[in-house]
Design brief:
heterodimer, A: alpha/beta, six-stranded mixed sheet, globular, B: mainly alpha, 9 helices, 68% helix, extended
Amino acid sequence: MSENTTAKFAVHDLDLFYGSFQALKKINFEIMPNKITALIGPSGCGKSTFLKTLNRMNDFVEGCKITGDVQLDGQDIYKSAMSEIELRQRVGMVFQQPNPFPKTIYDNVAYGPRIRGIHKKSDLDEIVETSLREVGIWDEFKDRLHKSALGLSGGQQQRLCIARTVAVHPEVVLMDEPTSALDPISTMKIEDLAVEMKEKYTIVIVTHNMQQANRISDTTAFFLLGELLEAGPTQEIFLNPKNPKTEEYITGRFG
Amino acid sequence: MTELKNESKVRVEVDQGRIQRARAVDNVWTVIFYLVALFFLLLLFAFAGYVIIKGFTGAKPEMFKFDRNGVGNYFFNTVYLVFLSLLISVPIGVMGGIYMAEYARDNAFTKFLRIAIETLSSLPSIVVGLFGYLIFLVATNSQPNLLVGAICVAILSLPLMTTTTEDALRSLPPSYKLGSMGMGATLRQTIQSVLIPACVPRIITGVILAAGRGFGEAAALLYTTGSDTNIKWNPASWVNPSLNPFNPLRRGGTLSLKIWTSFTASVGAEDIANLSSAILMIMVLSFSILAHYLEGRVKKKMGETK
């Protein structure tokens, strides 16, 4: 299998301000395709903010200003003609709190394809089934596709949200602390799922759980107070960190 | 260790007598508040009970008929007029609420808009009726009809629909909107496919409340709908459109107007007026209770899912 060495996301001199507060300072980073990149750091370090610049979800925060470049496959996502609609179709997101729509399981997964203009029942049936199979919940859900998604447990809801995200065949899946609200078994299932998913998608995951980053990610980036202090292959970051602050965080001296 | 007791020179004592008096006053006021609550209940029961009982005890069977002498046609007009007014006020009101919740920015224009909506909701209904009379009847040289009355009632229920929709949208978890827009949906798609469907129970409650208020509307209809009604239920008579019950451009007195005319016009029409009052009271009460019941069910359903 040949390694693709062109970056999926290329971030150059990114500064982000919430009003007068600078949340991200001169971030330079590359995210490689078909890998899991973990963003770690203590609360308030900017890792979630950075994640949200990748699919322009920061646009919804009033007073948010960005300077610098963020490129997806070489195209600037803020300055070029690419609409944020197209961007979010190509870059999906799974949130910290599972957020299924108040609809049936079927309608949740079919939501994305429907807004893309797919309305034929047989097409939607096929997409719903493959998406649920991909996430490993088809057998669990196949007999209750037309029941409300709100009746599911937290772990099931989160996996449904992942199925909903992949139903539109994105290129990148962003995950913002996807397991922090879940029990250990659901966490394990989703971690295994992420590892399987990197074959088809590029995964960027924010996590405050260092063991999780160590378990599943290929690359790890350490954020502190809005700066990207250190990034590299996960094994190196955890076994041989170069920045003393990275080592302090990893060994639990703060966090 | 330093002494932790308060060092002030003024002693704050525990005075048993003062405590007893405070508790006695507290008890007295508790009773007073309960009495006030009881007063409200008694007022409603006495009022509603009197009207309903008086209305039905004086009623003769032929009053219930759908003809010239009965209240049936007025009952139909009341329901039909409110239905027409909802056809106007619900779409416009809901869209207004969507604008206020999802599109309006935090600026002077929005503040002014909010004041305008609030003012609309406190317009005197007789003024709205006069407005309708002047603009729709005098200017177009028309006869009083149901449609103009419906428009006036719609104007009066617009603010309620707008506020209901706006509040319903604002009370939704922000995760719905973020989840939908995060998938590349536009705001319009998000509103149409996720947000409004999630608000439907609350909006329906608002519609029922607006309907209940519309039933009792009188002042706005005084000059606009015409207080008598002559409709025939035999389709053969509908050659003359003013006899067709479903023609909105015909005169259509409602129950509230029947009460008005029965008291001011002929003597001995009191029984009809009382019956009309009783029926109107029942309609308003039942819709109010229905709206509250639905509201409770919505709250329960939302609570279960949190």
